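Memo to structure team: turn this sequence into structure tokens by end of day. - J.P.
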Amino acid sequence: MNRPLTVVVCLLLAVGITVLQHFVVAQDKMVDPVSTSGSAEEPVVTDDFTLEIDRVDLSTSLRATDSLGDPAEPVEANGVWVLVWTRMTAEHTTMANFPAELRMKDGTTYFEPSWFPDAMERATLSPGLPLYGAFVFEVPEEKIDEPSLVVTHAPGFEARLGAQADVDLKLTDTSPSDEPADLLPPQIRTGEDTDAPE
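Reply from structure team:
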């Protein structure tokens, strides 16, 4: 009489352990950035910052300044330049390191080139002061497929458990302009005045 009961209890325990293992978080996932998802249609609010998307420009060339602040010749893209114009506001502390990436539907990720001094990644955010500027990416035109902008606050260059915004850009028109896109330095902008100067 006890043997069938023992078998049933053992089977239930085995099933219970198997089910519970699905709820165990992998060691490397325990320190991933804390991500907040949203879309370009509304601000995405994380614990450390708020991110708003203004617009996305695609162009075959980019006009920017050099490291001395002087105008430079337009830089041709090996594909397409994608400029994501954003307004970011630090919530509590000064933010000096917030790397961004452009992530496609299939998971392919593109990082910002580091040679544009006016790109948003070089900026410093002060608490409560909205900073308007562009994150810049170089992407093969045929690879642009439902991109999302992912920005992570990485204080001390450490992104573990950092606040992260994952924003669907809702990009429908992926054809680039033949006119050079102008990369302007980040500026403090308040209120509704978020349009970049033409």
